[in-house]
Amino acid sequence: MAAVTFSTDTDDSGAGTDGTIHNNAWKQAMATAINAAFTDWTTYTPTWGNTGTANTLGNGTIAGQYTVINDTVHFQIQLVWGSTTNDGSGVWTFTLPVTAVAVTAPGQALGSAVLTDASVGAYGGIVQQFSTTTCIIYNTDVVSTGVGAGTVPFTWVTTDTCSLHGTYRAA
Question: Which of 140, 133, 55, 146 is nearest to 99 (CA)?
Fold first, then answer.
């Protein structure tokens, strides 16, 4: 996104004291505030973990991006399964790009997920805060079952994808 800039005002006499509605310092402060509110997205590499035995990405890929506006973090993550990817056992975890405010109730909903079986179709999921640094996905097609655990919601194979996004408050 291009930065916001303002041209310099001139007043009637050129003395800088009359005919100027907003002085240059005020305009610069406004430009700075507007630019801060509309930041570009930043890429990051999330860590894909597990609550059970370790998973391995192998030749799969994982990518993330995020933006922060004031103390609100918006993020997206995509995991693409490779032929040597292994999901371990347990519920998958993904690192958040910025430390989140701790929640008093477990499972604070952050957003949604699409779990795509390339040969069958897509399933829905709910992204929940797991800690101040990680999130998990609950499959909405299998009650109270976290995504992972080998076959939830399907057996993961090459080119299957897990895409998630969410919004939370930074610590």
Answer: 133
Q: For the chain, list the strands marked E by DSSP.
A: 42-44, 48-50, 61-69, 72-80, 92-95, 109-117, 121-129, 134-139, 145-146, 161-169
Question: What sign for the dihedral angle of Cα 58, 75, 133, 109?
Answer: negative
**Entry pTM:** 0.75
CA distance 144 to 128: 12
pLDDT surpassing 60 at residue 99: yes
Distance CA 38, CA 156 (A): 37
- Minimum mean pLDDT among 44-48, 118-122, 130-134, 166-170: which range? 118-122
In sequence order, the β-bridge partners of residue 92 are 50
Q: Max Cα separation, the chain?
A: 77
Find, among 88, 78, 58, 80, the residue nearest to 150 by Cα.
88
